[in-house]
Amino acid sequence: MCQKLRSEYGESVGDSNNEVGAKVRFDGGVFRHGDVQHVFHKGDRGNANRLALMKILWSNRRRTKGTTTVKAGEKMQRAHMAARLNIAEDASSFGRDASAKRKLKNLINGINRELKSKNMPVKIDTVGGIQLVVKEK
Q1: How many of the other CB atoms lie within 10 Å of CB of 103?
Q2: Between the CA of residue 34 and those of 7, 22, 38, 104, 119, what are the distances in Å?
Q3: Which secondary-structure segment (H or E) carries 133?
Q4: 38 vs 9, 27, 56, 94, 117, CA distance in Å?
Q5: What is the C-alpha to C-alpha distance for residues 86 and 100, in angstroms, rounded to an integer?
Q6: What are 39-55's pLDDT values in tens digits?
Q7: Which residues share a beta bridge with 134?
Q8: What's the pLDDT tens digit per position in 76-105?
Q9: How far apart are CA 102 and CA 89, in angstroms?
Q10: What is the pTM of this model?
C-alpha cells in the first residue's frame, strides 16, 4: 500500500534522488516516463558503462518545466567523466587520447538515440560539459 502511494506521487522507493511530482523517474537502471520505460542492464556488453554514466548524470541533472528551470544541476567535465567510467586512464591523459574521446562521444550519442526513439524528454547535453537534461511540459 505504501509503495503504491509513493509511486502515485512520482517518488521511487529505490532511489531517493527522484523528486515528488516528477514525470520522469530513474529507478536503479530503469527510466520511466508514463507508460514508456527504458532499461539499462548491467550484464550486457557495453551497458555497464551506460548504467554507470546514467547514475552519475542523474544525480547532477538539470530539470526544466516549460521554460523555467526547476533544478539547475551541474555540468561535469568530459575528462573527469571518462576517468570515472574507466574509458581514459586519468583526466589529464583524456585530452591526448583520441580513442577515449571517440568512445565517450559514441556512448553519449547511443544513449541519446535510444531515448529519443522512445520519445522520452531526456537528453544528455554536451555543450560546455556533460549534463543530463530533463524537459517536462
Answers
A1: 17
A2: 11, 10, 11, 29, 11
A3: strand 131-136
A4: 20, 10, 17, 30, 10
A5: 9
A6: 877 656 657 788 889 98
A7: 63, 122
A8: 999 999 999 999 999 999 999 999 999 999
A9: 15
A10: 0.78
